[in-house]
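Handoff note, outgoing to incoming analyst
You'll be picking up this chain. Sequence as last confirmed:
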Amino acid sequence: MSQIPAAKQGHRPVAVVAFALSHVVRAETNANEVEMLMPVVHEVFAKAGITKDDVGFICSGSTDYLIGGPFSFVTALDAIGVWPPKSESHVEMDGAWALYEAFVRLQEGDIDIALVYGFGKSSLGDLDKIFALQLDPYTMAPLNPDLVSLAALQARAVIDQGIASEEDFAAVAARSRKSALSNEFAQVRRDDSLEDLMAEPYAVSPLRRHCLPPISDGASAIILVAGDRAFDLVERPAWITGIDHRIETHAIGARNLAVSTSTAKAAEMAGVGEGPVDLAEVHAPFASQEVILTTALGLPSDTVINPSGGALAANALMSGGLTRIGEAAQAILDGRAKRVVAHATSGPVLQQNLVCVLEGA
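Most recent structure output, in case you need it:
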């Protein structure tokens, strides 16, 4: 049996042993949330070689505001099977935070396996109205700012502080779309020239259309296993050797939008800089945000960024961050990488950030 890599925080060893996701599309019109999620859950169980009976804890990430109905996450349990009952929880956030909760739950020591999933149908609602609700209710939410305008303010701060240019944003988008050509699950897969991207009209200056994430419907799921049992399921588990999440102030005007101090702190606590990084899956819905995040993570210059295409190629809300962890873990499961970093964000203009370091034994 291979030796389990040492964890930075001294926690009980936990590994990703299986990852599955749906084909991300602009609008899933042939399936509801349960029907969209069901094949993903079945696939992740099949990859791990287990059934629901082996799972001790289930945690999901989604938001009722997308669906427009209360307790939609309870309905989603139909994709797994509600009998016999299982210990279950939910976060009204990206599924990456559901993974964090499951990781903490596995530290209790009484269970060994957890199922985590995230799902969202962005096509169902008005995203600008929905996500304005997460802003400060006294000074920001009444203004009802749209997502792109807020991101444009952040991009302008990046440019004005001399960190990057519009051409740099276009280069991020071009690389992401080209990388997605090898990802059958991605939504936007093209080999665009920098010149063609720079000729596009502005959505909101300084962000052109290519800097924006696609509206996406999709789901993803991960199986977590604690201790030596992971080796019973897969030959090369992706061990979580460090994980941390931090939050910025709710007052957007009190932040320097061109930097992400919460990501930098989470990266420090997760131990990103304590070893080489083969690749990083960074959850950057806007091209300008990838510039901010890669700087905050302190990644080595030779690190491969978003080989899956990232959120610019597919951005299923409430599963985009979990997918970044899954894509990073898959590189270890496949033997393509030894040490990887995954990042997830939630909230307006990178308000909340989670960083996860995974290693192969």
